[in-house]
Design goal:
Shape of chain A: globular
Radius of gyration of chain B: 24 Å
Strand content of chain A: 5-15%
Number of domains of chain A: 1
Low-confidence stretches of chain A: none
CATH topology of chain A: Cytochrome-c3 Hydrogenase, chain B
Order of helices and strands of chain A: EEEHHHHHEEHHHHHHEEEHHHH
Low-confidence stretches of chain B: 182-190
Number of strands of chain B: 7
Order of helices and strands of chain B: HEEEHEHEHEEHHH
CATH architecture of chain A: Orthogonal Bundle
CATH class of one domain in chain B: Alpha Beta
Distance between the termini of chain A: 63 Å
Mean pLDDT of chain B: 82
Number of strands of chain A: 8
CATH architecture of one domain in chain B: 2-Layer Sandwich
CATH class of chain A: Mainly Alpha
CATH topology of one domain in chain B: Alpha-Beta Plaits
Largest sheet of chain B: 3 strands, antiparallel
Largest interface: A-B, 31 and 24 residues
Strand order of the largest sheet of chain A: 1-2-3
Distance between the termini of chain B: 76 Å
CATH superfamily of chain A: Cytochrome-c3 Hydrogenase, chain B
Strand content of chain B: 5-15%
Mean pLDDT of chain A: 88
Number of helices of chain A: 15
Oligomer: heterodimer
Largest sheet of chain A: 3 strands, antiparallel
Helix content of chain A: 40-55%
């Protein structure tokens, strides 16, 4: 005897994180899945919240730089640069040209280090164990250079309001030239190893596609937006530092899928290398620090400054009340804003691709949670 | 298929090359010249005392408040063997709190504190990471030997140089005092 029974299908909630290794930190996603398909995703953030913005209100301008080091802990120098530019804009200081060149060289090398880490970890997210070894090997070279210039491998506190802390060591230029050649070979090697690998293509092509209107309305910036086909780059669109003197292309993708987001970063590695080489050619002797008082005390006012981080458009809104401590520091972190695009990307994706899509956004939780 | 083979070729090439990794506990990589390890205090050998006068500027400027210091009147100043009126009595750095930013070194105008090369300071007890004056001076001594450190402003900060300069100024003053009015502008700092 058989009983007729109808089964009602219900969506299942699947918790991913906060200790999941593929979330690159402490990030939790609650996935609503219908069978193998992701119906919805809710990101939960805040596990790494340290209150950096509030802490900054109780510290002097020089001390706030150390907090910015710890926001995006993969691209420390880019973060230092954006805060120093905000404070300089408020104070009306223009750093000397050599200082600006040193800042741009270090920022571009840091972008390179960040992208190399992304390439390695993205491959490991997709199950390829080898590329991270290559990525870390090249990143190590860059960090050794940072150690010889700034004294630290990650938390540098080197870029200061009005310039940089001290001039570069005498062997800097030949060393960076050798490094650029080494890293160029390394990036080409990773490119050969991974980019057109069939398995990698199968995992990333056509996955997590986002079109331009959705990307723009989500506030997606950086390589994620450029992969969709919008050539938005703060370095080009809002010229600052010595970027106008450098010639470089802004790589733009076509499909806006995971592979494009990955490939934009590979292409940006080459562009950064060429920018570093141009800076070395153009750099001249001179002071590295503007003439200013040791304790920065910007006049009353407010300013919003933004720049291109490896992850996207980082902005700093700085309010000064005329004392040596900022009244308010607000950061627009690119990783945080890019997370908004997670939901449209993941909708109707396979659950196995959730990690691939999250990985392609390249979030850093120190910056998301601040 | 071709992409996979190409990738395999890249990997196989590395079989014949030397590894780039170092085996850490057995093998220590050298630090760079500018490396910023934990802060250390430096010793003025011309007077046999630390450079630090306990002016507290590093304590105030530290973003994590990891330091504390105490000073007292310098007995060597009354002896005339040092030019420092005040001298450090106690100095403690909580190395667990220190974030190695180097702000203390930037603000110090007495050449007293430097970022040493020390970076392996694991300890079994929590209090083991509290560095007192003796440990800080020992680390500073090691740093001076390794880096060949020279004071930035010896005329102001090194006791031997400053005292000699002051004595010369005083001698010139007495010599000038016999001839005409004295000139006070050569008087040094603390």
């Amino acid at each position: 005897m058989t009983t007729e029974q109808t089964y009602e299908t219900v969506d299942m909630m699947l918790n991913m994180g906060p200790q999941h290794p593929a979330t690159h930190g402490v990030f939790r996603m609650v996935l609503t899945v219908d069978g193998e398909h992701v119906v919805d995703v809710t990101p939960h953030i805040g596990y790494l919240h340290r209150g950096s913005e509030k802490l900054a209100e109780n510290e002097t301008y020089g001390q706030v730089i150390t907090l910015f080091d710890r926001l995006d802990y993969v691209a420390n120098l880019n973060n230092e640069l954006i805060f120093c530019r905000a404070a300089e804009r408020l104070m009306g200081i223009d750093p000397p040209e050599r200082g600006q060149y040193i800042r741009v060289i270090l920022a571009e090398l840091n972008r390179l280090a960040s992208h190399l880490l992304f390439i390695g970890t993205y491959a490991i997210d997709l199950g390829a164990m080898t590329p991270i070894m290559y990525g870390f090997r090249e990143r190590e070279r860059i960090q050794n250079l940072f150690e010889s210039v700034t004294g630290a491998r990650m938390m540098h506190n080197f870029i200061r309001i009005g310039g940089v802390k001290e001039d570069v060591p005498p062997d800097f230029v030949p060393r960076v030239r050798a490094l650029a050649d080494d890293v160029q070979r390394g990036v080409e090697e990773i490119d050969r190893l991974l980019t057109f690998n069939e398995v990698f293509l199968a995992r990333t092509r056509g996955v997590g596609v986002i079109d331009v209107p959705t990307a723009l309305s989500c506030g997606l910036t950086g390589p994620g937006l450029r992969a969709s086909g919008v050539a938005y780059d703060v370095r080009k669109d809002y010229p600052h530092e010595v970027y106008p003197y450098l010639s470089y292309k802004v790589p733009v993708g076509e499909n806006g899928d995971c592979w494009d987001r990955y490939y934009m970063r590979v292409l940006e590695c080459y562009e950064s290398l060429s920018m570093v080489r141009q800076c070395l050619d153009q750099m001249e002797e001179g002071p590295v620090m503007a003439q200013m008082r040791r304790i920065a005390r910007p006049p009353k006012g407010e300013v919003y400054v933004h720049g291109e981080n490896p992850r996207g458009d980082i902005g700093v809104f700085l309010v000064s009340d005329g004392t040596d401590k900022p009244y308010r520091v607000k950061v627009r972190p690119p990783s945080f804003c890019n997370l908004v695009a997670l939901r449209p990307m993941m909708r109707d994706a396979y659950i196995a691709d959730a990690v691939a899509i999250l990985g392609s956004l390249d979030i850093v939780l120190g910056e998301v949670d601040r | 298929m071709i992409g996979t083979l190409k990738g395999m070729l890249t990997t196989v090439r590395w079989l014949l090359r030397r590894p780039v990794t170092a085996h850490y506990p057995e093998q220590h990589l050298p630090v760079q010249e500018r490396y910023m390890g934990f802060p250390a205090l430096l010793m003025d050998d011309t007077a046999g005392e630390p450079f630090c006068t306990g002016c507290m500027v590093c304590v105030r400027e530290c973003p994590t408040q990891c330091m504390s210091a105490q000073m007292h009147d310098n007995p060597k100043f009354t002896d005339g063997t040092s030019h420092r009126r005040k001298i450090i009595n106690e100095f403690e750095i909580n190395l667990n709190r220190c974030i190695l930013c180097g702000i203390c070194v930037d603000v110090c105008s007495f050449d007293a504190i430097e970022m040493s090369y020390e970076h392996e300071l694991a300890s079994y007890a929590r209090a083991g990471s509290r560095a007192d004056l003796d440990l800080l001076l020992e680390q500073g001594r090691r740093y001076m030997e390794m880096s060949g450190w020279n004071p930035e402003n010896p005329e102001k900060n090194v006791a031997g140089v400053a005292l000699a300069k002051r004595a010369a100024a005083a001698a010139a003053k007495t010599a000038a005092g016999e001839a005409g009015p004295a000139d006070d502008s050569t008087e040094g700092g603390e």
